C-alpha cells in the first residue's frame, strides 16, 4: 500500500481546505462574519502575549491596574478630545473643581456623556450673551 502524501495529510488539519482527487483546491482560511469580534479576539491575544512576554523576560509578576486606572485614563482621553474640539470652535474648556460640581448637582462619573455638558454650557453662554 502506498503511503499518503504528507502535504495532503497535513492539509487535512488546516481550516478551509477542500481536497478532491488528491489535490488541494482551496487553501484559504474561512472568513468570519463578524470582523469586529475577530479584531477584538486578536487584540486580546496580542495584549496577553505582551503581558506573558514581559513576565518571562523581566521576571515581573502580573499586577492588575484596576478599574480606577482605566477609568482615569478614559477621563483624560475624553478631556483631551473635548479641549481640542473646543479649541477648533474657538472656545476654551475650563475645568471646574470637584467641590463646585457637587454643589451644582453635576455628576463627576466617567460614564456620562461629557459632550452633552459642553453643548449645554455653550447654549447657556449663548443665551446669556443674547440677553
Topology:
Blueprint: H1 6-11, E1 18-20, E2 23-26, H2 35-58, H3 67-88, H4 98-103, H5 114-130
Antiparallel strand pairs: 1-2
Polypeptide structure, described:
The chain has 131 residues and is mainly α. It has two domains: 53 residues, no CATH class; 64 residues, no CATH class. Helix content is 57%, strand content 5%. The chain has a two-stranded antiparallel ribbon with strand order 1-2. Strand 1 and strand 2 form a beta hairpin. The longest helix has 24 residues. The protein is elongated and about 90 Å long. The termini are far apart. The mean pLDDT is 75.
Strand line-up of the largest beta sheet = 1-2
Share of residues in strands: 5-15%
Largest sheet at a glance?
Answer: 2 strands, antiparallel
Alpha-carbon distance between the two ends: 98 Å
Order of helices and strands: HEEHHHH
Characteristics of this structure?
elongated; 2 strands; mainly alpha; two-stranded antiparallel ribbon; 131 residues
Summarize the structure.
This protein has helices at residues 6-11, 35-58, 67-88, 98-103, 114-130, and strands spanning 18-20, 23-26.
